[in-house]
Design brief:
The structure holds two protein chains of two kinds. Chain A contains eleven helices and eleven strands. In chain A, strand 8, helix 7 and strand 9 form a beta-alpha-beta unit. In chain B, helix 7 links the parallel strand 6 and strand 7. Classes of the chains: A alpha/beta, B alpha/beta.
Chain lengths: 316, 402
């Protein structure tokens, strides 16, 4: 169950080009890394559809440029609640024009995915529209100052969960929601494991239909940890089983890609100020919840589908 | 080919003949027959493009926007609550300069709940930057959908083709369905074009000659709005040309502002939508009785045909606006705009204008009601109030001609 050993040969080409004199992402932001690895694996024949959020903020009002062979990669700004369906419509247009090469990629944050955009996301997944949807999850509305989203974990404080109150709802399990649509491919990834991330992007590219990538992108300003620890926090999220690396094919075949070391969640919690107030009892609750979810994941991974996909016929 | 079809079917036939690459819609009463008819055309292989029954109106406008940004011809349709739910998408499609054509079946917005007709739903989207046409008959609905593509695509602006719920959407009339070859001659295949819109908001493909990088600076916003507004002003010429060409090919047409028996009319009624047909009949009858009355049909509402309205209303003694909509707390929306058009011009400043609100929530605007309004306008002094309620309570209109 350990991660497949893939030689770390990263494509040389850079698609994400920082401007001279510094970019507009926060120091230690995980998103440029996620975008950089993603594009290295996906290549330049892409059009991005980007709703409001951190990513749009760092590419729309010129900062980073997206470049391929000396020309810009198109990024289309989407409305907050309509990211997936913009991408669906755009893909339909490209197909109508005979362009089968260009990959349409919806690149949204957790707010645009878990909350306001869930309906059009579900619609596009149900239609199995041929797009890649990336949820860049920083567990809150970080671009607007760390308000809670339904991706914010239980127990965290945010700018709308102010002590003595805490975020008292569980994080929505978006991977289960998406696998529940029986889409061909859904996978989790983090920037701490670029090989795994890039392999998943390449794999997604090979598949036709709706593909969902859930990338955890720790947020220095919202989660509050030293900016040099972004990769470490990403790694700890995996090693404590808080954010397991796995993929689901056709809604049933679940593979865990990395057996975590099983570090106590405390290792992950203690370096983020958003969890600082938690009592030892509350920390124990989080540990139990993580263990429970991990067991469920293992149970799903042990379920053996015979792997034969049902291809429903399109017409009579 | 003459067929007896409803307004909904006429809209779908118009769309079919325009050969959209993508048609997407979400069903809503009283528009549902449009997506059903499109699905039927698709199943029969007549609609070559893709038909998608999406999961909401927000998705319908989203799908349409994505597809139109991808450089293909797009059709969609909605009504009432659905149109309201599209609201942010409407601004976005127009601001992105995408020539989407949408049929809007006019239905009241809740509450109270009502599934019939009034035009407040589309009129309250007047500031979104969409071109708006109001149709009188099912034939006009079909023809206007085709014309709308011509107009929208030459301006890079989206169009709403509005038809009254129930009165047009559900009522079957005989409609001449034009031949496909002739429509093709009128409306060639869509070739997306780049014009200077102040910002590049179209995606098309990644081919270098077409690629648009959509990153814009905040400072670009005002200039983009200036250009969008300037291009809307071009609409009048484009509309007239599109209508002339249509007239030449199909032998019928619909001007932005139409006058009916207005030559020596002293009192002119301004109306829009399906009740115009009823009013024509009332004007005929009143003229026979010796009244100097005429009718102006307002088809184009956005952009507002200011000069055309001023020119047809010039020198009249009184104007009556009868309309099926209301801006609650203010007055009728057509009335408001027409009054503004007249009051801001010296030559028209002192023409009294009577604003009648009628037929809200689908109440029939009968010949009797229209006659009542016209006779009131002729006989009574200019009203102190901005709204005269027609057909609600007799005491509210205070007239003895009922």
């Amino acid at each position: 169950m350990n991660m497949p050993r893939i030689p770390s040969v990263y494509p040389k080409e850079e698609y994400l080009v920082p401007p001279e004199g510094g970019h507009s992402a926060c120091p230690g932001c995980a998103i440029p890394l996620a975008l950089r690895y993603f594009l290295k694996a996906a290549g330049g024949e892409v059009i991005l559809v980007v709703p409001p959020g951190c990513t749009l903020a760092i590419i729309m009002f010129p900062s980073f440029s997206l470049m391929y062979q000396g020309r810009p990669i198109t990024a289309f700004p989407a409305l907050f609640g309509s990211t997936a369906v913009f991408a669906s419509g755009l893909k339909a247009a490209l197909e109508a024009r005979g362009d089968t090469e260009t990959e349409v990629v919806a690149w949204a944050g957790d707010g645009a995915t878990y909350d306001i955009g869930l309906q059009t996301l579900s619609g596009a997944a149900e239609r199995n529209d041929d797009i890649i949807y990336v949820c860049c999850d920083n567990e809150g509305y970080q671009n607007t100052g760390n308000q809670r989203s339904s991706a914010t974990p239980w127990g965290a404080i945010t700018s709308t969960n102010i002590l003595p109150t805490i975020k008292s709802e569980r994080k929505k399990d978006i991977m289960q929601i998406m696998s529940g649509h029986s889409i061909p491919y859904a996978a989790t990834a983090t920037i701490a494991y670029p090989d795994d991330l890039m392999r998943k992007v390449r794999k997604a590219k090979e598949i036709k239909g709706f593909r969902f990538l859930h990338i955890l992108t720790p947020c220095v300003t919202g989660w509050v940890f030293p900016s040099e620890l972004t990769v470490e926090v990403s790694r700890l999220a995996v090693e404590t089983k808080i954010f397991p690396l796995y993929e689901v094919e056709n809604g049933t075949v679940l593979t865990i890609n990395k057996e975590p070391e099983g570090l106590p969640v405390e290792e992950y919690l203690r370096i983020q100020r958003r969890f600082k107030h938690l009592t030892s009892q509350q920390r124990a609750d989080i540990q139990r919840e993580v263990d429970r979810k991990w067991k469920q994941l293992q149970w799903l991974a042990n379920y053996k589908d015979n792997g034969s996909e049902v291809n429903f016929r399109k017409s009579t | 080919m003459i067929k007896v079809i409803t307004g909904n079917e006429a809209a779908a036939y118009g769309a079919l003949l325009a050969r959209p690459d993508v048609a997407c819609a979400y069903p809503i009463t009283p528009q549902s027959r449009i997506p059903e008819q499109l699905a039927e055309f698709y199943a029969q292989g007549l609609l070559k493009g893709r038909f998608v029954n999406v999961e909401s109106e927000m998705a319908a406008i989203g799908y349409a926007t994505g597809a139109s940004a991808g450089g293909v011809r797009v059709f969609t349709a909605t009504s009432s609550q659905g149109l309201a739910w599209m609201h942010e998408g409407l601004h976005n499609a127009a601001g992105s300069r995408l020539p989407i054509v949408m049929a809007v079946v006019n239905r009241p917005l809740a509450a109270p709940w009502n599934l019939t007709t009034d035009q407040t739903d589309s009129l309250s989207q007047r500031d979104t930057g969409w071109l708006q046409y109001y149709c009188e008959s099912n034939q006009e609905v079909l023809d206007t959908v085709i014309q709308a593509y011509k107009i929208s695509e030459s301006l890079s602006l989206p169009s709403m083709v509005c038809l009254d719920g129930v009165y047009l959407s559900y009522v079957a009339e005989s409609v001449d369905i034009p031949e496909q070859e002739k429509v093709d001659e009128y409306l060639p295949a869509y070739k997306p074009m780049f014009r200077d819109t102040g910002i590049t908001y179209k995606v098309y493909t990644n081919r270098p000659e077409e690629a648009g990088y959509n990153v814009n600076r905040m400072e670009d916003f005002m200039r983009a709005k200036y250009i969008q507004h300037r291009d809307e002003a071009e609409c009048f010429d484009v509309f007239l040309r599109a209508n002339q060409e249509f007239q030449a090919l199909f032998g019928r047409g619909y001007p932005p502002v139409e006058t009916y028996r207005c030559d020596d009319a002293e009192v002119v009624v301004v109306m829009s939508g399906s009740a115009v047909g009823t009013c024509r009949h009332v004007i005929d009858r009143l003229q026979e009785q010796g009244h100097k009355v005429g009718l102006v049909k307002l088809k184009l509402f956005r952009p507002f045909p200011l000069e055309m309205i001023r020119s047809v209303l010039k020198g009249r003694k009184k104007i009556a606006v009868i309309e099926r909509d209301i801006s609650v707390g203010q007055c009728g929306i057509f009335y408001q705009e027409i009054k503004w058009a007249l009051n801001t011009n010296m030559e028209h400043k002192f023409i009294p204008i009577y604003g009648f609100i009628a037929g809200l929530g689908g109440i029939d605007i009968t010949p009797k009601l229209i006659e009542k309004a016209i006779l009131y306008t002729i006989m009574e002094p200019p009203p102190q109030q901005e709204i005269l309620w027609l057909g609600l309570e007799d005491e509210e209109i205070r007239n003895e001609y009922a």
